[in-house]
Structures are given as structure tokens and as C-alpha cells.
């Protein structure tokens, strides 16, 4: 027992003991601290906003492309009009046909406005994403000027667009439907164990594609170059989390789309949740890469600022008017006292 008057040192908490015992848990806590300290939720919300906002001009571009295609395919346009009139009777069907005709006639205007708005929204999305990733790495780059920053963001946006298109294309090629067609051509679709192997291969292919995309984003989108080794591991972490999230999201959408409210707002809510969770996942994986052992180098200590030795002359501002009056009165009293002493000494005794 400790002696009376002495205090026993506090025991470390359970989190501190777990962090000291398990290195992976300590890494998770470091990443979480970096994520929260760098305002990860705030940046994830900004990325989600620009993601949803950029969808509307992209839809305008898609409508314009559809208008260009239908303007050159009159037979296809006639088939669509007939299908609409057969499906939707009365004035409603005619209104839909008129709306399609107006969209085709205004395809140039819609396309130009869509491209301009998509470029503006895309630059905002990319600037927010790059700033968020740089914050997770605790980068504080100096401003390169407005024009140079926008050109850099534009190059990064085009690179991200190409990477996402390639990812979608590879995902389509590795989808189960395409694999089933290939197996049908080879007459192997009814072989035992083919269905399970096909599903596993599809998941592994999707995981590999997501791994490549997230690794590229974590390593190349921050405004300053970072280590690629830790980004590869963080990209794998993000890819695994993304695949798990897609499985949960599919169940979630199936549940909320059954009711009338889900049919009305389910797609919008699903898009918001999907964009927000994906943004958080990417930012946390970036924080994981930034707090790995090889990146936790001691920050250089800046030398102290140069000391300026400047002697100061300390003086008084004077005694002032009141002090002068007091000094004069004291001097007069002193003079009277000396005069009285002198007269006293000169008197005859």
C-alpha cells in the first residue's frame, strides 16, 4: 500500500493499454485523430455537395447527347414516340412527346450550358477534394496563384474523369452479366460450381479495380507529392471498405424503396448517403496512409527568429508644472531658514 500522503500514479486507460499492445489498433486511433483533427467530416460534406451538384449539368449533357443521336435517327425517334403514345394515353403522352421534341431542338443550348456548368461544378469538386486530401496529409502548400491553381485542378479533373471512365468500363467488363454471356458462349454455364466461382471472380475483379482507383486518388490528387507505398495499402483498405459498403447499400436501398416515401425520395437519399460515406472512406484511408510508420517522421523544428538587440534610452518626461511649484516652495523655505540662521549667528552675545 502506498504511504499516507503519497499519491499512486494513475493507471493508463483501456484505450491506452490497447494502443500499447496492438500496433494496428494504435494506427487506427492515429488515423482517427488525424481525420477528426483535420475536419474530415466537414470536407466529406463539401465533397458530397459538389458531387450531387455536378450531376445536374451532367444530366444536361446526357440529354444533349441523346438529342444529337435522336436527331440523326428518325426511325428510332418515331419508335419512341409510338411507344410513349401507346403507354401513356391522352394529353399526357402528347406532352411527353412535345417535351422530347423541344429537348432535341434545344440540344445545342442545353449542351453548351451543361458543359459550362459541369466544368464549373467539376472544378469546385476537384478543388474541395484536393484540399481535403492535402489536409489529411497535413500539407500546407503555398498559394500558386488563382490561374495556376485552376489549371492544375483542371488537369487533375480530366485525369480523374479518365480514371473513373476506365474504372466503370472495367467494372462493366468484369460484371457477372458479361461473364455469364462468355460462359454461355463456351457452354459452361451449367457446370457445377461455375455460379459461385463467377460471383467470387466478379467481386475480386471489382475489388482490384477499386484498389487501383483509390490508390491513384490518395497518392496523386494531394497538392504535394506523397509516398506511394503507404498509399497502396491505404487504397486496399478503402477498396475493401467500399465493397462492403456496396453490399450494405444494396440491402438498404431494397428496404427503403418498398414504401411510397422511398419511391419518391429513396434515390436522392441513396445518392447522398453513397457520396458521403464514400468521401469519408477515402479521407479516412488517406489519414491512414498519412499516419503510417514511414510517414510519421519528426517535423523539422524551425530555428528561432533572429534576436534584435536595440538599447533603449530610458528617461523621464520632466517634473512638470506641479513639481516645479513644489520645488520652488521648498527652495524658498530653505533660503528663509538659512537666512534666519545667519542672522542668529551675527547677533552680539
What do you see in this structure?
The chain has one domain (24-137, 145-293). It is built from 12 helices and no strands. It has helices at 14-21, 23-37, 40-72, 74-87, 91-105, 107-136, 146-173, 176-185, 194-220, 228-256, 260-290, 320-346. It is elongated. The model has no long low-confidence stretch (mean pLDDT 76).
Ordered list of secondary-structure elements with their pairings:
Layout: H1 14-21, H2 23-37, H3 40-72, H4 74-87, H5 91-105, H6 107-136, H7 146-173, H8 176-185, H9 194-220, H10 228-256, H11 260-290, H12 320-346
Helix pairs in contact: 1-2, 2-11, 3-5, 3-6, 3-11, 4-5, 6-7, 7-9, 9-10, 10-11
Q: Quaternary status of these chains?
A: single chain
Provide the domain count. 1
Residues in β-strands, percent: under 5%
**Total beta strands:** 0
How many H/I helices? 12
Shape: elongated
Largest sheet, if any?
none
- Parts with pLDDT < 50 across at least 5 consecutive residues: none
Classification by helices and strands: mainly alpha
Helical fraction equals over 70%
Q: For the residues shown, what is the average pLDDT?
A: 76
Radius of gyration: 38 Å
The topology string of helices and strands comes to HHHHHHHHHHHH
Spatial gap, N to C terminus = 94 Å
Amino acid at each position: 500500500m502506498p504511504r499516507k500522503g503519497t499519491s499512486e500514479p494513475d493507471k493508463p486507460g483501456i484505450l491506452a493499454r490497447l494502443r500499447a499492445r496492438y500496433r494496428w489498433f494504435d494506427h487506427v486511433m492515429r488515423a482517427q485523430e488525424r481525420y477528426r483533427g483535420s475536419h474530415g467530416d466537414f470536407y466529406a460534406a463539401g465533397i458530397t455537395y459538389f458531387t450531387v451538384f455536378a450531376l445536374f449539368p451532367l444530366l444536361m449533357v446526357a440529354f444533349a447527347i441523346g438529342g444529337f443521336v435522336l436527331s440523326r435517327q428518325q426511325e428510332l425517334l418515331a419508335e419512341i414516340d409510338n411507344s410513349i403514345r401507346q403507354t401513356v394515353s391522352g394529353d399526357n403522352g402528347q406532352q411527353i412527346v412535345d417535351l422530347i421534341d423541344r429537348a432535341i431542338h434545344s440540344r445545342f443550348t442545353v449542351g453548351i450550358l451543361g458543359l459550362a456548368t459541369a466544368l464549373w461544378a467539376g472544378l469546385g469538386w476537384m478543388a474541395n477534394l484536393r484540399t481535403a486530401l492535402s489536409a489529411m496529409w497535413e500539407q500546407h502548400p503555398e498559394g500558386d496563384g488563382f490561374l495556376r491553381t485552376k489549371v492544375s485542378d483542371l488537369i487533375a479533373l480530366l485525369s480523374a474523369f479518365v480514371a473513373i471512365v476506365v474504372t466503370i468500363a472495367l467494372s462493366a467488363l468484369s460484371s457477372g452479366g458479361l461473364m455469364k454471356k462468355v460462359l454461355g458462349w463456351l457452354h459452361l454455364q451449367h457446370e457445377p460450381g461455375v455460379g459461385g466461382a463467377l460471383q467470387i471472380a466478379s467481386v475480386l475483379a471489382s475489388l482490384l479495380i477499386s484498389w487501383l482507383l483509390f490508390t491513384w486518388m490518395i497518392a496523386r490528387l494531394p497538392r504535394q507529392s506523397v509516398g506511394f507505398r503507404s498509399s497502396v495499402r491505404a487504397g486496399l483498405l478503402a477498396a475493401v471498405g467500399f465493397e462492403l459498403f456496396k453490399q450494405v447499400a444494396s440491402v438498404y436501398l431494397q428496404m427503403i424503396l418498398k414504401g411510397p416515401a422511398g419511391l419518391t425520395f429513396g434515390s436522392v437519399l441513396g445518392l447522398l448517403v453513397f457520396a458521403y460515406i464514400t468521401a469519408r472512406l477515402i479521407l479516412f484511408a488517406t489519414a491512414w496512409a498519412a499516419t503510417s510508420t514511414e510517414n510519421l517522421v519528426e517535423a523539422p523544428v524551425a530555428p528561432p527568429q533572429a534576436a534584435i538587440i536595440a538599447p533603449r534610452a530610458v528617461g523621464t518626461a520632466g517634473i512638470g508644472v506641479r513639481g516645479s511649484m513644489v520645488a520652488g516652495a521648498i527652495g524658498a523655505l530653505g533660503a528663509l531658514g538659512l537666512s534666519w540662521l545667519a542672522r542668529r549667528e551675527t547677533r552680539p552675545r
